[in-house]
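HUMAN:
Could you generate one sequence with tokenized structure?
ASSISTANT:
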Amino acid sequence: MAKGRVKMRDHNAESFLHWRRALVSFIGILVLMGILFANLYHLQVNEHKAYQTRSNDNRIKVVPIAPTRGLVYDRNGVLLAENRPIYSLEIIPEQTADLDDTLDRLTVLLELDEEAKERFLTEAKRQRRSTPVPLASRLTEKQVALFSINQHKFPGANIEAYLKRFYPYRDTLTHALGYMAKINDKDVERLREENKLANYAATRDIGKLGVERYYEDLLHGQAGYQEVEVNNRGRVIRTLKYQPPIAGSDIYLNIDIRLQARAQQLLAGKRGAIVLMRPKDGQVLAIMSSPSYDPNLFVHGISGPDYRGLLNNPDRPLINRASQGVYAPASTVKPMLAVMGLNEGAITARTRFFGGPYFQIPNTTRKFRDWRRWGHGWMDVYRAIEISADTFFYDLAYRTGIDTMNEYMSHFGFGQYSGIDLHEETSAIMPSRNWKQARHRQPWYQGDTISVGIGQGYWTTTPLQLARATSILVDHGETVHPRLLRGIASENGVLDMPVSKGEPIRILQDSYWKVALDGMYRVINGREGTARRAFAGTPYKAGGKSGTAQVFSLAENQQYNHASTKEHLRDNALFVAFAPFDDPQVVISVVLENAGGGSSNAAPIARAMLDAYLLPEPDPIDEISPDE
């Protein structure tokens, strides 16, 4: 067998192959090194600030600081809303190994109710696990001491001191002042939409109603912060930077707490409202809704039973009757209607009208009865206002029509927001043809007009609107918006707020205003005046107008009997007044629900309030002492 040939190795080819491989490897190494160095450059140069920030975020923590809320005073400097220190037990969930066990043991140790645990768990779900969540606030000295002794058993739990709102006059000012309560999801969403959420990072409470809500931005202030260095366990090592918060502004209200307390006394045990204001500048001196409630219940979180008790109370204490309660204005608007009639030429100061027991629209059979069964006989506009003759104003309404009435009464502010610095207000109803068509899908009938002519039917108003309309009347058409805020505290004293005016009412002759006001003078001082008994013996002269508003409609021949009518169906009592007559300094509106006649029930209250304002020394009220 022949041997095979041995092939000679090509050293040159092998050398070239080795060289190519080495070159490719070298280029690969260079490329990889280039990528490495490029990445290092990107991380250490281009992204230096970003990674430094992330590093600082692990080492440096920004802690927001809540500002101190501004205080609220009355017009004389009496403190109405203050901040008081409280101690709160807080837990950071992520620092607690067994949260349920910790809650159970703390509940037993501090004798907390089960609702505290439920509220904690609900709030913890809304927050990050690194955020402290309060378990109990308003801890007593005994509870603070018990926890301090046992704090080592509860990692993640601490006691923090806070300032909480306190209202020393409790239910005297609730509907005007409002209250603060815990920020909820709805508040968070609203603050986010308004780009204000960052300013509330350290704030737990927010104004919910009244002045507290309306002037939230003014009272809250500007949050501060501090940058602190922390270790890997989150403990603060040192403070790097401190930016102090800017406290909220202190504000002064037009309310006089003495007059407000007097209004509360007069409404004790009744459902109703009182509004006392100055006609020249719209300053609200007292605005009381009864019944009321203690706003301090909401500051620390109202309990379920307490809230249900308020919500289900048939007297509806949560409603601000002064600005949200709607009532038929009844005869209180007859002086305004008289001005309308004079300006439209429907009547004159000398017009004579015979008032029988009822009024009938021509060619109809329906009878619109007067409050006096046998009528009032011959009268002019002065006597019609004095004795509150319905038939006179039935006839006036028939001859002017709903369109004219709607136009004039809208100028007096009926059916519109008053402009007061409260969010809790309704516009009530100044009816018109379009309104009825939109609301009831029915045309307007002449009979509707007749009822509106004495402030009944579809017409509704609020006590605040009545006070404003009366102020427009006594100020001869000059309109101002009611105002609770008097001024803001500054380094130079109290910075007073300017008067907020509206478009004035212009009429043909200024004497028309005097006709209506003279009629109101006779209501109180005249021989037949409906309120002459309530104002007998006053050392000052005043003008006023009573009103008795039906809550339900009577049949044509049905007679109203107060005693036999169920309490919630009885007439509402109303009264508006101003004093002194020659230079009105104050106007008042009073509404009492289901109280009966306005002249016998509401007028004495109006007189007592005017006495308190004009005669503070001869008619002192009980000493006012806020709760400590």
Observations:
- The chain has a mean pLDDT of 88.
- The longest strand covers residues 79-91.
